[in-house]
Amino acid sequence: MSFENPTAHKRPWEQRLHEAGTRVEEDLRRFVTYFNDEIVPDVRRNGSEALRSAAAELNRLAQRMDDHAPKTPPPPPPPPPGEPKS
């Protein structure tokens, strides 16, 4: 039983494709490590702060919408089922 290099008998384009796949896998592993070590902890630390900031912005937007809404009274509610309409 001999253990041969699986890439020893590949054609040049197959070899390049295999090497590119290997590089992509290595880059993906590095990215996942970076994401888990740098991004996730920062989001966990600052996530509540970001939500509070977003809530404040949404509150300001709602206030502006209320300020620019037409100043007409709301229509009367419809009569309950079974009552004649006036």
Could you please describe the fold and organization of this structure?
The protein is mostly helical and 86 residues long. The protein has a domain of 58 residues. It has one helix and no strands.
What characteristics describe this protein?
0% strand; mainly alpha; 1 helix; 86 residues
Number of beta strands: 0
Number of helices: 1
Largest sheet: none
Shape category: elongated
Region (Disordered): 1-23, 58-86
Biased composition (Basic and acidic residues): 11-23
Biased composition (Pro residues): 71-86
Structure described in brief:
The chain is mainly α and 86 residues long.
Helix-strand blueprint:
Elements: H1 12-68
